[in-house]
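sanity check this chain:
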Amino acid sequence: MRHDTRAPAPVALPRVLSAGQLRAHGFTPAQAAARVRPGGPWQALLPGVYLLHRSAATSQERLHGVLLYAGRPAVPSQGGTSQGGTAPPYGTAMITGLAALALHQFAAAPPLLDLEHIDVLVDRTRRLRSTGCARIVRAQEMPEPVEVTGLPVAPVERAVADAVERLTDPGAVSALLTEAVRRGHCEPGAVVAELNRARLLDRPHVVDAVDRLLAEGRALAEERLYTMVREYGLPDPVWNVELRIPGGPRLGGVDAYWPDHAVAVELNTRAPRRDKDAGWSEHARKREHLERLGITVVHLTPHRLRESPEQQAMVVRTALTAACDREPAAYVVVLPR
C-alpha cells in the first residue's frame, strides 16, 4: 500500500505548526514525514512540532514552537482554527524564566537568541519531558499569564523566581531582582513570596540579594509616601519615629505619625521569608497594642502607593478627620528612630 505524500493544495501556512495543526490543514503524517527528510523543505523543531522552512529558527519561532510542544493545542474543529475561537492556542502553557524576562524587556536578561533553552511552565500533572530547546518547568498552581507579543508569558515575579532557581552567579541574581523593582514591574513582596514558594531562600546568594531588594523597595515606598503627603496636601506628620508608653515599654516604629490625631501610617513592605515567620506575629501584636491605646494604624502597601496615591491619601485623610469623633488616645512618647 502506497502512502500519498503529495502536499495538499497550496495555502498560506504559519512557519511553525504542530502535527495536529498540520493534520487540520490536510497533511497526513506520511506527508509531513516526507517533508522533513534530508533535502526536504521542512525540519523538525521539537517532537510533534515542525518548522516549515530549512533556515535557522528565529527567536519568535522557537518560542512559538516550545509553546506548541508544551501546550499540545487541540486540533481545531471544523470552521475554526487553533488561533481563533475561545480555546487558547497553547493550552495553559506559558513562557517563564529568562526567556519570559527577555520578553518583559529586562536589560539584565540575555537576548532570546543567546538562550540555549526556553523555559516553559506547565501544570505539574502534565506528562512531558524537556527536550531540544524546550525546558519544562512544573507548577503546583499555574499563575495567570500576561500576553507579550501575542504569547502567554508568566508574570514577572514568577519568571524571576524560575530564572533565579537556575542561576548561581550572585551578580546576575541581584541584577534581576533589582530591575524587577526599580523599573516598576512588581513589588518586592511579590518577588520574595515567589522565591519563598520555590524554596530558594536557603541559598546564601539569594538571601543577600533579597536583603538588598527589600531595602531598596522600602526606600522607594518611603519616597512615594513623602510625595503623597506633599502632593495631596495632608498635614505634615513626624517621620520615621518610635512610640513608647511613658516609663514603659517601646511600642514599635511607624513610618509617619500625627500626634494631634493619634494616627500612624505603616508601610507594609515585609514579605514572608520562611513558612513560619515570627516577625509577622510580632507585627500583628504591635498593631493590636497601638489600637488598644486608641491609636489608628493605617497600613499602606508600596503597590497601592504607586498605583493609586490619591485613593491612599483619602484613606489617611479620613483617619485624620475621624480622630475628632474618637475618645482621646493614651499619651505616648515619640522618639526618633
